[in-house]
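Progress report, Aim 2. The chain analyzed during this reporting quarter is listed below.
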Amino acid sequence: MSVSAVDLTESIDFYDELFGAERLPTPNFGFPVQWLRIGDRQLHLFQRPGDVPAYHHFAIGVDDLDAVYAKAARRGCFDRTSFGHHLYELPGDCVQLYLRDPGGNLVEADAKGVGRLEAATRAEVRRLADRFPQSVENLRATLFL
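Predicted C-alpha cells for the chain:
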C-alpha cells in the first residue's frame, strides 16, 4: 500500500506513534519516499503533489484499539464525517475506527471485540446496525478471516 504525505516526517511520526511503524531501507525514487513496516505489512509513504481521494482508505488491524484511540484523540485525527461517525461496531463483533493521517489519507483501525474496549472508548462506539439495517447476509460479515 502506498499513500501520499504532505510532510513525510510528520506522517512517519503518525504511523510510528499510532501503529508502531518501523522505518525500512528505501530506494531513492528521486522524490521523498519512506517505506514502513507495520506488523507483517509494508506501507509506502511518498511526498508528491495532488489531492487525496476522500473515501479511499486502507485498514490496519490492531490488538489494542484503546491505545490507538487514546493516541488519536491526543492528535485530534478522528474522521467523524466520511462515514457519519468515527467509531463503529460492525457485525462479527468487530470495531472500526476512522482516522485521517497528516497527509489527509483515510485510515481504518480494526479490532476484535467491542467488549474488550475500556468503558470510555466503548461509550463512543455506535452500532452500524443502528444506523443502517443489516440483512442476515450482512450480519455474517467479519473484518477478520
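The longest strand covers residues 94-100. The CA atoms of residues 32 and 47 lie 5 Å apart. These observations will guide the mutagenesis work planned for the next reporting period.
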